[in-house]
Structures are given as structure tokens and as C-alpha cells.
């Protein structure tokens, strides 16, 4: 700067004018190429990729109920790594750069983990204290809360459940502390995803924030006995650790204490501008296998989809991955020249559930008759295909189309045979002259659900059903009341893990709103959740899937369409990842062409 | 007077109380605060957690009084009792409000000031040339902007001013024919909006053609868009123009001393150009302000020593000229940083931004960051200015027309005063009185945020905070926004009334 001279410019301009006047040249401009626009742009700083996100960042720790937002999870995906990650096909991929694990015994289920000398970005090793903290959070080992009696304490108030790790003993560490063993009281089929990366926080930072040393923290976690709800204890140190874990990492702008920003992932947080952006820079002290290729990743919050698209066009952002997708957005993005659109189905899917607690659907024949009238292909053709022309009817309650197991289950579960085509005659036959009234609960502020409802209604009425519209913006409050015959809403499949089985399909499960109960399914659910053999487990889940269709549980309709819009300047974003990590799942592979 | 203000304030408190209760109840009743959690894989943990955090197990009336208790704590100074509650995400509402207000003020300030200045100018000019092409042109243009939906205008601006301009910047070349075509269009507009005899209008049209094509040619031929500059000649030229115009408006060209004072200030500014450059290295906002003040002071001093029968006029002319010359020198310095800005890895040669207030991750000195702010605020400012132009121009036109028809204007003319004095001294000032109310209201409304503009340009200001919280059925932030906008609106209403009575002696506040 400051090297500018007017003389130079004047000379150039005079020369340019003279040249033009002499030659009568038809084009004006572009002379003096020393500042020829953006051609040499990337050279100086290089390697910046900008991502547009819909929500604003609020916390480094996204594992508490208040901070469990998609954007926090995405940032965590770039700044935390653990023993595994999940690929777009929803398969578990071991991450050897962090550490390895091996199942050493089936009964009792025992897993041996070995750390590969991972480090935090400030040089502090990830060691015994970090693992103990990680495990304590996930297992809820020390909790002695009795929710009903309102006694005791839940030390780590996590957004997930302690279902998987809950029944394990304290990790047993080797002499050097580099390997440890987890022993389960009961077989647990989800053991591979037990150490959830989102729950890993730096023990030395938590300790410092809680006013203790890392050793004191380790000692507290190790020495405190298992919580007993019947005999709750006052344990102020544990409480302090839990509180610090939940609160210290919650900030929406850059904290003064930068130790809160330590990372063990390929990138680390460099700056946060409240409600606007998070700047990630390469983690130079990264020790694992998935080192970042870029100097910097900027994650910007742009709520409006049209604004995201225009920013993508203008080169202000390189990647957009909106949560809600409609025809309008996808059409606009498809029109962009330099942008590749990667489409896929989200893990969220819409489904129609019949209420087993309602009189209407007590009779299996009525359930089947109603489901036979549901025009699933028409719903997909009219509502989803315009957005994602590769969309298809979802034929499984267990897996989504992009998963390997989906093919296997659709061969077995007969969804296609039973409910593939609308069968009005078959439905009439089953109804045998009856004209039951079906009251359908759904969210009538969601245009997609309104349209789905209309299509179902038209079709069902042809078979003699009377369909009543229970559309309500407060549909969700009424879901548990059970005062409806059928409900139309969405689930988000977790992708990996079996917890959903007992939540939704088991008798009395927390998400079993339609009071579905089949002893055979209950048994299979329990078995599948503790089955350590993946193939046998998949077979059991296929059976559950089959049962739901045979019983007339309801029907899965379609997966919500999703897409990533990626500038052609970016390498490494090639597959649609439907889970909560979204486009960030392989953030270390991104680079600029 | 005092008792009047007190009475107004007391009423305001009661209105706020009542309104806050209604707003809280309406927000609480507007939906299910847990709506986004059903169907979530972690619903079993998330639902009880939020219920506890937001006291959802209590009826809304109780929650309102909890909120009110926290809000009343804000009235006690120097105590730590002030809380407007937490949002759904567990953030302090007071902190969210502070941030949102900052964003909103940044977004709308420039747009509002420009709208007021340009709008009033256009209104006065069109009133002075009523029923001329210029008048019709201004009316057409302002109403056109007024009727555009803001989201559409914003999208259009992004398309043309940002994306297309940035594309053009990659290879800023134009054929001579298109330059001439642009000139012809500009000439036509000049012809249409000019007034007077046909010969004058044609002359104006030709002038418009020449000036426009000349400027476009100059800009392209010197690669001005990628490496802009003013330099001594352009600063001098513009400075002289400013001096002449200021003289015409303030004292009339017959006051030669004032004119010479203005021109002398331009000369001093030019002399300072090179010394100031080194001073600018590592400069900040303070340096810039100091330069402006120094130039104003120099101008005033020159005006004072130029003397004459009216020192005041000379001081004003030269002071204003000095201010503008300072601005030009600063602008020139920003332009010197423009190529560096373009070359930055964050910008990659596409300077005009379509979203948010700054390029995240960009680092640089005052000048680079200033340019970055400019490129980001350019579009929203244009959009807000265009949208608000009509109300100011129409008000000021009507008000000016009314004043110009008053008896005292005729008297002033009959006294033999020059047209300049009649317009500037007698009409213009009085025409501004009704506008004072409008401006006060608008400034009060500013803080409420421009919901759509904020959303389209990805600013997370008050409007966004409000909309987002209503959507989330999250009463605490809604109440925060309501409280701030409500108080500001009432205060500015009061100020508007008081200002009116001060400006117009015919209106008196009943004590």
C-alpha cells in the first residue's frame, strides 16, 4: 500500500486514450493488466472455503439439550474426532489416526481401545482424564437422580441418552494409560458408536474452568462411586464438573479465554462473529490421519435460501447445504453454471401411522384396507419428484434408501407387494360395506403435509372411508393424547444404531405414540439391541420391519429431499451425506482447485 | 412543559405494561414451544430439558410475572438484577438485544440518512420546477421505487449491482458502440428531465450524452474499476465544483469573497494531499475525523480572513468546502487500497457482496476493512434508500409548494430579494418543519428493524430476532424486542411533538 502514484496512472490513461484514438479500436478497457481482477486472487492467502449455513452457531459443546443444534454439530465435526466416523452410506468407519478398538469378548461384551497418541491443539495429550470425562458423560455412571421423587442429581445433562454406555463398568486403563477396556454388563449391539465424538471435551480445559487441576478432575471421576438413586449423595466437585461442561463451552461469539476453543480435529476455531460466522483454520498440531487441506474454512450464517443461492452465484460462498429444500430453491441452484448439485434423500422421512389405541383401527382388515388406499407413488410423483427426480417411495420403517440394508429389507418385508399400488377394490373388499371414519392428525402449516393429506383423503374416500381433517399447527401436542385415528408426521432416522427400535416400535416406547404393540416385535427388539452379530441383527430388524407391514402399523411415505450446492472450484464434496454432519462429514478432504 | 412531559411519560409506562402483557400472552398462545422436538431422535431428553429451562410447566400468566420481575430489575441502577430472561437456546436476551440493535443500526443508518437528504432535495427541486419534465421524472422514479416489493428490489440489486458487476469486473471491457449507447440513453434522460426552452433542453441532452460517455470511456480506458484513483486533478476539479455550488446555495455567486475563500480552501486541501498520505499509514477512524475537522477549521479560518461584509457566509462556504475536500482525500486513500482488497484470497476479485455485514476471516488495516464494510453495506443501503425516497420527497414537495404560495414569500419577492434568498432563507427552512415530525418517527421506527431487508441480506438484527423468536414460540426475546421498540417509539413520539412546538412558534405545548 501507499505505492500508488498518480503519475503512473495518468501516464497509462493518457497512453490508453491516445492508443485508442489512433487505432480507432472498438473495445475499451482491460488495459494495464497489472490488476486484472480476480485471476490471481487465490494466490496470496489461498485455500479459503466458505460454507453457507442456515442456523447460527451457539456452542462448542453441542451435547447439551440447549445446544443440540445442527450447526454446532457441524462445527464440532471439524474440531473433534474420535474412534469412528460415519460415511454417507451410514456405515461406521474406524478412525485409526485417533485410536483403534477391538472387541475382545462377546460375553461379557468387552472392548479394548488403544489411543494413537492423539493431542489437543494446545499440545495437551488426550489421555486418561479425557477418556474418563468422556465416559462419565456418556454413561451417566455417577447420576443418582430419581426424576419422580425429585431427589439426587443428573451430573451431565446430555441431549442424548445413556442407553448404550449406561451399563458399563469404569474403564480399566493399562499401565501407560494408552489403552483401556470397557466391559458391558449386558450385550449391546451399538457398542461401536458408544464413544460419540460430540461428547468429547478437553478434560484439562474443563478442569481449569471448574477451578481444579486435571489430576483432581481425574481423581474425582475415578474415585466417585456409582450413583444410587435410592441413596443420593451431595457431590459438589462432580456437580461443578458437570456444570462447567454444560456451560463453559456455550458462547455465540469469541470467548476471551481461547483455551475453550482447543480442537483435536483437522480444523480449529479461530474466530466467531455472533450470529454471522465461524472461522476455522487448519489445526497445525493435528496428529491424526485426516489432516485438513485448506488454510481456512468460513462458515457463514445466511438464513434466507434465496440469499444463499445468490451468495453462491456471487462466489461469496462455495458450498450451500440448506435444511429445507423446495422446488424453487433446487431449480434456482440447478440453473447455476459453475455449481454442482449433489442430491439425495435426508434421514428425515414422512410416514403415516395408524393409531392402535383408536377404535377405528382395532380391526386388522380396516387397517389393511386403509393402507391399501394410500397413493404413495402418486404422493412421491407429485410432491417429491419435482424436487428430486430420483426420489422413490420409501419401503422400510427401518432403513432409508441410501443404506445397504435397505435392499435386503425390501426383498423380505413385502411392502411393495402389499402396499405398492393403490388397490381400491381390494380395500372395498376388506371393508365389506363398512364406511369407517378416519381422523388424520397432521401439521396443516406444512404445505407438504397438507398436500399429502389431500391425496390420501381423495384416494381413501373412493374406497368408502370418511376422512376427517384434524390438521392443526399444534399437532405435536396432540400426538401423545391419542385422540386421532391416524397421524402424518416425520421421524428423523438416526442412521446408525438401534435405539430407535425400542423408542418407536416397542410396547410403551417413548416415541410409540400410536400404541403399537406386538409381543413378537418386542422380543425381536430386545434381541436386536443386544445382538453383537451384525448380520443376525440385521435379519432380526428385517423381521421387525416385516411385522410392521403385516400388522398394518402404517406406511413410510418418502424421505425428505436434500441437496448440497457446491462450486466447481471445490474438490472433495462428492456425496450426499444425509446425517446430522451433513456436508461437513469429510471436511478434511475439502480443497480448492 | 415539564408537567406535560411527565404526564406523557407516566401514560407511556402504563401503556407499556398493558401492551407487554398482551404481547406476552399472544406469543405464548401462538403455538407449541416444543414443536421442533417431536420426531427428534433425542426427544426424550430434549423435551423435559426445555420444559424446565423455560418453565413451560407453569401457565403463561405466571411466566409473564416472572419475566416482569426480571425486567423491573432493570430499573434499579448499578445492581445486577436486570434480566430479560433466557432464550430457547439459553442465551441472555439482553445480550441478544444488544447485538441485534448493533446490526440493525449498522444496516439502516446510512440508508435512512441518505433517504432523508436525497428525498428532501428531490422534493424541494421538484416543487421549484412544478409540472416540468424534472418534476414528473422525480415523481415517476420515486413512486416506482416506493411500489417495488423490498425483497424483489433486493434480489434485483444483488443480481445487477453485485453479481453482474462482479462478472463484468473479471474482464472490464466494453465496445465503443455500447459506450455510445449508454451515452445516448443518459442524454435522453437528461433531455426529458431538463426544463426550460426546447433549445436549452436539447443542449442539456447533448451535454448529458457527452458527459456520460466521457465518464464511461475514462473509467474503462484507465481501468478505473480495478484500480480507481482521484489524484490531484480529480480532487481539484470536484473541489472547485463543490466550492461553486456551496457558494451559490449559501451566499450567491455575487459574494466573490466567499467564492474565493472556498477556492482557496480547495488549494490548501490539494497542498495537504501529499503530506497527509504518510499520516494515513496505520490510520484509524480517529485520523479520518481529525482530518475532516482540520479541513473545516482551515476553511472557516480562510473564510474569516477573507472577510467582507458578511464573514459568516464566507466561513460557512469555505468550511463546507473544506469538509468535502477532506472527504475526497479520504476517498482517494480508500481507492488506493482497492486493488489490494480485490486481490485478497477472501474476495477473489468479486468485491460487491450480497450478504451480511463483513467478509468473515478477512483481515487488514483500517482502509481494507472500511472498503469491506462499504462493499457489504452498499446493496442494503441502496435498497433502503430507494424504498424510503418517495415518502420524504412527496412530503417535502407538498410542504414546499404550500410555503411557496404563502403571502410572506410574495412579500419577500416584492422586497426585491433574490430568488436564492427567497428559496433558501424563507421557504426552505419553513418547509422542513412538518418533516421534523416525520424524521423523528422514522428514527424511532429504525430500531425496530427492517425485517425483510434484514432477511434478504442476512443481517441478524431486531427484525430477524423478532421473527425467529415468534416462529420458535419463544416469548422472552419477543418481549425484549417489544420493550426496546416500544420505548423508542414512545420517546420519539414525544420528541417529535416537542420539536414541533420548538420549531413552529404557532404550536405551543399546553402545560
Summed over residues and divided by their number, the pLDDT of chain B gives a mean of 89
Q: What's the gyration radius of chain A in Å? A: 28 Å
Major sheet description of chain A: 10 strands, mixed
Radius of gyration of chain B: 27 Å
Strands of chain A, count? 19
* Helix content, binned percent of chain A: 25-40%
Short description:
The complex is a heterodimer of chains A (593) and B (511). Chain A has 593 residues and is an alpha+beta fold.
Description:
In chain A, 31% of the residues lie in helices and 18% in strands. Chain A is α+β, with helices and mostly antiparallel strands. In chain A, the strands form 4 sheets. Chain A has a 10-stranded mixed β-sheet, with helices on both faces. Chain A has a 4-stranded antiparallel β-sheet with strand order 5-6-8-7, with no helix packed on it. In chain A, helix 3 crosses helix 5 and helix 4 (203-209) crosses helix 5 (214-223). The longest helix of chain A has 18 residues, at 6-23. Chain A is globular and about 75 Å long. Chain B is globular, with a radius of gyration of 27 Å. Chain B is mainly α and 511 residues long. In chain B, helix 12 packs across helix 13 (366-404). The termini of chain B are close together. Chains A and B meet through helix 1, strand 1, strand 9, strand 10 and strand 11 of A and helix 2, helix 6, strand 1, helix 7 and helix 8 of B.
Amino acid at each position: 500500500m501507499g505505492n500508488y502514484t498518480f503519475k503512473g496512472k495518468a501516464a497509462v490513461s493518457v497512453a490508453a486514450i491516445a492508443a485508442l484514438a489512433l487505432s480507432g479500436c472498438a473495445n475499451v478497457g482491460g488495459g494495464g493488466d497489472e490488476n486484472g481482477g480476480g485471476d490471481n486472487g487465490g494466490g496470496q492467502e489461498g485455500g479459503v472455503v466458505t460454507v453457507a449455513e442456515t442456523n447460527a452457531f451457539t456452542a462448542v459443546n453441542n451435547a447439551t439439550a440447549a445446544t443440540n443444534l445442527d450447526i454446532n454439530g457441524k462445527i464440532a465435526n471439524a474440531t473433534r474426532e474420535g474412534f469412528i466416523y460415519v460415511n454417507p452410506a451410514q456405515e461406521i468407519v474406524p478412525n485409526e489416526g485417533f485410536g483403534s478398538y477391538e472387541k475382545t469378548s462377546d460375553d461379557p461384551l468387552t472392548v479394548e481401545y488403544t489411543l494413537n497418541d492423539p493431542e489437543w491443539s494446545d499440545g495437551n495429550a488426550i489421555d486418561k482424564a479425557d477418556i474418563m470425562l468422556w465416559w462419565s458423560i456418556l454413561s451417566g455412571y455417577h447420576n443418582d437422580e430419581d426424576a419422580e421423587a425429585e431427589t439426587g442429581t443428573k451430573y451431565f445433562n446430555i441431549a442424548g441418552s445413556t442407553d448404550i454406555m449406561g451399563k458399563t463398568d469404569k474403564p480399566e486403563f493399562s499401565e501407560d494409560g494408552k489403552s483401556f477396556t470397557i466391559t458391558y454388563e449386558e450385550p449391546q449391539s451399538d457398542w461401536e458408536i458408544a464413544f460419540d465424538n460430540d461428547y468429547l471435551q478437553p478434560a484439562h480445559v474443563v478442569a481449569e474452568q471448574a477451578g481444579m487441576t486435571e489430576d483432581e478432575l481425574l481423581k474425582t471421576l475415578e474415585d466417585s462411586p456409582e450413583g444410587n438413586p435410592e441413596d443420593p449423595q451431595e457431590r459438589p466437585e462432580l456437580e461443578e464438573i458437570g456444570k462447567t461442561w454444560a456451560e463453559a463451552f456455550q458462547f455465540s461469539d469469541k470467548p476471551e479465554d481461547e483455551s475453550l476453543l482447543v480442537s483435536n480435529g483437522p480444523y480449529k476455531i479461530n474466530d466467531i462473529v455472533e450470529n454471522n460466522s465461524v472461522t476455522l483454520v487448519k489445526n497445525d498440531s493435528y496428529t491424526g490421519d485426516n489432516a485438513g487441506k485448506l488454510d481456512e474454512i468460513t462458515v457463514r450464517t445466511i438464513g434466507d435460501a434465496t440469499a444463499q443461492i445468490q451468495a453462491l452465484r456471487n462466489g461469496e460462498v462455495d458450498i450451500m447445504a440448506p435444511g429445507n429444500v423446495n422446488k424453487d430453491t433446487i431449480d434456482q441452484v440447478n440453473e447455476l453454471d459453475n455449481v454442482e448439485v449433489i442430491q439425495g434423500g435426508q434421514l428425515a422421512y414422512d410416514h403415516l401411522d395408524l393409531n392402535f389405541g383408536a377404535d377405528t383401527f382395532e380391526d386388522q382388515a380396516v387397517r389393511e384396507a386403509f393402507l391399501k388406499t394410500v397413493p404413495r407413488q402418486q404422493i412421491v410423483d407429485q410432491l417429491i419428484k419435482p424436487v428430486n427426480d430420483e426420489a422413490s417411495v420409501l419401503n422400510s420403517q427401518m432403513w432409508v434408501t441410501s443404506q445397504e440394508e435397505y435392499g435386503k429389507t425390501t426383498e423380505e418385508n413385502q411392502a411393495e407387494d402389499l402396499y405398492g399400488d393403490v388397490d381400491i377394490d381390494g380395500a372395498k373388499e376388506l371393508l365389506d360395506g363398512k364406511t369407517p371414519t378416519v381422523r388424520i392428525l397432521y401439521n396443516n402449516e406444512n404445505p407438504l403435509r397438507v398436500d399429502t393429506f389431500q391425496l390420501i383423503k381423495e384416494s381413501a374416500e373412493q374406497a368408502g372411508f370418511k376422512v376427517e381433517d384434524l390438521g392443526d399447527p399444534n399437532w405435536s401436542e396432540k400426538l401423545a393424547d391419542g385422540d386421532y385415528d391416524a397421524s402424518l408426521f416425520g421421524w428423523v432416522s438416526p442412521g446408525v444404531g438401534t435405539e430407535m427400535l425400542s423408542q418407536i416400535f416397542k410396547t410403551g416406547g417413548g416415541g410409540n405414540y400410536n400404541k403399537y404393540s406386538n409381543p413378537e416385535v418386542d422380543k425381536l427388539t430386545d434381541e436386536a439391541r443386544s445382538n453383537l452379530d451384525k448380520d443376525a441383527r440385521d435379519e432380526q430388524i428385517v423381521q421387525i420391519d416385516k411385522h410392521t407391514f403385516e400388522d398394518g402399523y402404517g406406511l413410510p411415505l418418502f424421505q425428505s429431499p436434500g441437496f448440497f450446492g457446491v462450486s466447481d472450484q471445490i474438490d472433495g464434496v462428492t456425496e450426499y451425506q444425509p446425517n446430522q454432519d451433513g456436508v461437513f462429514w469429510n471436511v478434511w478432504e475439502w480443497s480448492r482447485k | 412543559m415539564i408537567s406535560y412531559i411527565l404526564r406523557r411519560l407516566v401514560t407511556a409506562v402504563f401503556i407499556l405494561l398493558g401492551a407487554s402483557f398482551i404481547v406476552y400472552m399472544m406469543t405464548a398462545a401462538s403455538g407449541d414451544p416444543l414443536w421442533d422436538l417431536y420426531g427428534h431422535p433425542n426427544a426424550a431428553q430434549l423435551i423435559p430439558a426445555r420444559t424446565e429451562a423455560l418453565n413451560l410447566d407453569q401457565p403463561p400468566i405466571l411466566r409473564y410475572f416472572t419475566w416482569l420481575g426480571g425486567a423491573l430489575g432493570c430499573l434499579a441502577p448499578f445492581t445486577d438484577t436486570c434480566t430479560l430472561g433466557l432464550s430457547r437456546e439459553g442465551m441472555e436476551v439482553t445480550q441478544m438485544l444488544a447485538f441485534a440493535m448493533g446490526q440493525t443500526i449498522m444496516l439502516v443508518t446510512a440508508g435512512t440518512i441518505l433517504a432523508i437528504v436525497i428525498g428532501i432535495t428531490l422534493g424541494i427541486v421538484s416543487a421549484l420546477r412544478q409540472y416540468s419534465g424534472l418534476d414528473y421524472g422525480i415523481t415517476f422514479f420515486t413512486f416506482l421505487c416506493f411500489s417495488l416489493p423490498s425483497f424483489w428490489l433486493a434480489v434485483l440489486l444483488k443480481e445487477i449491482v453485485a453479481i453482474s458487476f462482479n462478472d463484468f469486473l473479471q474482464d472490464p471491457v466494453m465496445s465503443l458502440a455500447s459506450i455510445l449507447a449508454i451515452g445516448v440513453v443518459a442524454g435522453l434522460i437528461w433531455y426529458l428531465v431538463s426544463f426550460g426552452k426546447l433549445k436549452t433542453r436539447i443542449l442539456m441532452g447533448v451535454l448529458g450524452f457527452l458527459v456520460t460517455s466521457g465518464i464511461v470511456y475514462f473509467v474503462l480506458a484507465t481501468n478505473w474499476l480495478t484500480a480507481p484513483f482521484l489524484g490531484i486533478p480529480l480532487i481539484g476539479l470536484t473541489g472547485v465544483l463543490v466550492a461553486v455550488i456551496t457558494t451559490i446555495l449559501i451566499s450567491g455567486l455575487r459574494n466573490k469573497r466567499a467564492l474565493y475563500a472556498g477556492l482557496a480552501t480547495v488549494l490548501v486541501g490539494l497542498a495537504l494531499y501529499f503530506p497527509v498520505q504518510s499520516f494515513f499509514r496505520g490510520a484509524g477512524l480517529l485520523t479520518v475525523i481529525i482530518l475532516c475537522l482540520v479541513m473545516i477549521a482551515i476553511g472557516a479560518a480562510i473564510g474569516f480572513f477573507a472577510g467582507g461584509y458578511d464573514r459568516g457566509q464566507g466561513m460557512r462556504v469555505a468550511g463546507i468546502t473544506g469538509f468535502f475536500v477532506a472527504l475526497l482525500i479520504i476517498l482517494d486513500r480508500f481507492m488506493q487500497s482497492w486493488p489490494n482488497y480485490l486481490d485478497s484470497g477472501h474476495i477473489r476479485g468479486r468485491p460487491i457482496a450480497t450478504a451480511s455485514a463483513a467478509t468473515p476471516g478477512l483481515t487488514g488495516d483500517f482502509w481494507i476493512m472500511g472498503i469491506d464494510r462499504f462493499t457489504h453495506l452498499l446493496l442494503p443501503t441502496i435498497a433502503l434508500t430507494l424504498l424510503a425516497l418517495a415518502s420524504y420527497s412527496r412530503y417535502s414537495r407538498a410542504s414546499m409548494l404550500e410555503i411557496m404560495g404563502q403571502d410572506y414569500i410574495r412579500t419577500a419577492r416584492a422586497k426585491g430579494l433574490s430568488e436564492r434568498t427567497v428559496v433558501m432563507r424563507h421557504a426552505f427552512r419553513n418547509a422542513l418543519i412538518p418533516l421534523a415530525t416525520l424524521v423523528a418517527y422514522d428514527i424511532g421506527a429504525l430500531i425496530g428493524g427492517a425485517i425483510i431487508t434484514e432477511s434478504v441480506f442476512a443481517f441478524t438484527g431486531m427484525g430477524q430476532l423478532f421473527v425467529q423468536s415468534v416462529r420458535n414460540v419463544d416469548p422472552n426475546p419477543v418481549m425484549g424486542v417489544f420493550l426496546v421498540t416500544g420505548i423508542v417509539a414512545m420517546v420519539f413520539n414525544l420528541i417529535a411533538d416537542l420539536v414541533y412546538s420548538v420549531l413552529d412558534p404557532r404550536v405551543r405545548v399546553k402545560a
